[in-house]
Design goal:
The protein has 179 residues and is mainly beta. The chain folds into two domains: 31 residues, no CATH class; 123 residues, Mannose-Binding Protein A, Chain A (Roll). The strands form three sheets. Strands 7, 8, 9, 10, 11 and 12 form a six-stranded mixed β-sheet that branches. A four-stranded antiparallel β-sheet has the order 1-2-3-4, with no helix packed on it. The two termini are 21 Å apart. GO terms for molecular function: carbohydrate binding.
Length: 179
């Protein structure tokens, strides 16, 4: 069988041309397991691929607390913050049509005016604020969203339930083994 051999600890992983995964145990000299046929980098069902990531829109509209606590982590993702203008537009395009926009993993809850904007645990440097934003207009606008009206970031009250949640995850690359 032609394929790719990778040494992983005490086992060899063999990916066949059809992307079936076999585990060869060095100790016994036999194949121990076989995984289902898969597409490397394919997103799970219900997720949309873009680059090296997968995105999924959750049903309904949510508050920031619901979006950041478990909504995305429960399905293996995280609440994103866009890294490029293209990703910003893509995330907004996935919003629930009845929502005013999309929540971002970006807030100044710890220190007013010191925005922490994370994407998968990494700080996002570029920001896409709308004109005059962030402005803390109501005196308690500490969470960021992408607004449908201009496609830019705005600070809003974190308890508003007018925004959609789009989750992000890395495209699969780590494979689990079936017995």
């Amino acid at each position: 069988m032609a394929g790719i051999l990778m040494k992983v600890g005490l086992i060899l992983l063999i990916l066949s041309p059809k992307w079936s995964l076999f585990v060869y145990m060095q100790a016994t000299g036999k194949f121990a397991h076989r995984c289902e046929t898969l597409q490397v980098g394919a997103c799970p069902e219900g997720w949309t691929a873009r680059g090296n990531h997968c995105y999924k829109t959750l049903d309904g509209i949510h508050s920031y607390a619901a979006a950041t606590t478990t909504a995305c982590t429960d399905i293996g993702g995280w609440l994103p913050t866009p890294n490029t203008p293209e990703e910003n537009a893509f995330i907004l395009s996935m919003s629930v049509p009845t929502a005013e926009g999309v929540w971002l993993n970006c807030n100044d809850l710890e220190t007013e005016g010191a925005w922490t904007c994370l994407d998968g645990g990494k700080q996002v440097r570029d920001r896409y604020w709308g004109t005059g934003e962030p402005n803390n207009a109501a005196g308690n606008e500490n969470c960021a969203v992408i607004e449908h009206n201009d496609g830019r970031w705005h600070d809003v009250y974190c308890n508003y339930k007018h925004y959609s949640v789009v989750c992000k995850r890395s495209a699969p690359g780590v494979l689990s083994i079936e017995a």
